[in-house]
Each structure stands twice: as structure tokens, then as C-alpha cells.
Amino acid sequence: MTGIRLPFHLDPDDRDAICRAALTVTRHRLADVTMDLQPLDEAWSEEAEWAAHEAQERYRPPLRLLTRRPKRDRHPTIDLDPRDDSDFRVAWALAPYTWTTAIDRDQLVVLDTELAVLIWVTSSEYVDLVAEVATVGGDTELLVPDPTLKPWRS
After folding, report:
1. Which domain holds residue 27?
2. Is 32 left (phi over 0), alpha (psi -120 to 50) or beta?
3. Which end of the chain offers a freer environment for a tag, N or C, measured as fewer CB atoms within 10 Å?
């Protein structure tokens, strides 16, 4: 596994390209994508509004154990199935704009937070990731493997 650590404060076009490319090239092995339903900035971008609306419509707040009434959820999240085309389109659209965690059974593949974007890919996925980012005009020089970044088991 190759680990890549990117600073959070990337050029927005590079962030879009890298986050979406990471989901695209690892989709075949992803079991779950969890996304925060609050945008990292003040509001959703125009291009992600439809996906945010769709995700919020699917959201069901956790229930209180005793009363079975919805809990107040300060950080609502939604789980999406990357094998489902509709779910993947939502994840792909929202990935650059919110916290994202993508998991392959028991291993983290993409972690996108306030502090950094972390990506773990195989050698062939790394080649595909660089090609995908280049295709959409992202800065491929940002995709430098970090030998200190070990695979993170969930």
C-alpha cells in the first residue's frame, strides 16, 4: 500500500480532482463511504447542492435508546454504498466539500478531514490516480507517496 498525505488547504480545483479521483480509482474495493452532511465551508458549492439535498433527504437521525425519538445530532453523517451507482454519484459530488471516510472492509482508503487528505492506494491504483488527476487538470506533483504513512486499520 502506498500512502499519500495532502495538506487540507489545497487549491480548490486540485482538491476536487484528487478527492474525486481517489474515490473513482478505489471504488472497486470500497465497502462503505461515510460523509459528514455539513459542508467544510459556509455553504455547499452550486455543483454539489443537488447531492447535498439528496443525502440530507436520506439522512435518518439516530434514535434515543429509551424513548426511540430522534437524537439531536451535531455532526450528521450518511453511509453510502459505493457499489450502488446512485450512492457513488452522491459521494463523488460531495467528496471535495465535506469530511469523507472511505473504507475497504477493515482498512481506511480515503480520509478527508479539516487537517489533511490521506489516501492509501495499491501501486496500480497509484498509477490510475495520477492519470485520473492529470485528465481533469489537477496538479499530479501533489501526489507524492509518503513512506511514513502506514495503512490504517479501522
Report:
1. 2-59+74-142
2. beta
3. C
Average pLDDT score over residue span 117-128: 92
Q: Is 44 exposed, middle or buried (0-12, 13-18, 19+ CB in 10 A)?
A: buried
Residue 79 lies in a domain: yes
pTM for the whole structure:
0.83
SS3 120: strand
Instruction: Tell me whether residue 149 is exposed, middle or buried, using C-beta atoms within 10 angstroms of its C-beta: 0 to 12, 13 to 18, 19 or more.
Output: middle
Residue 29 lies in a domain: yes
**Domains: count for the chain:** 1
| 151 within some domain | no
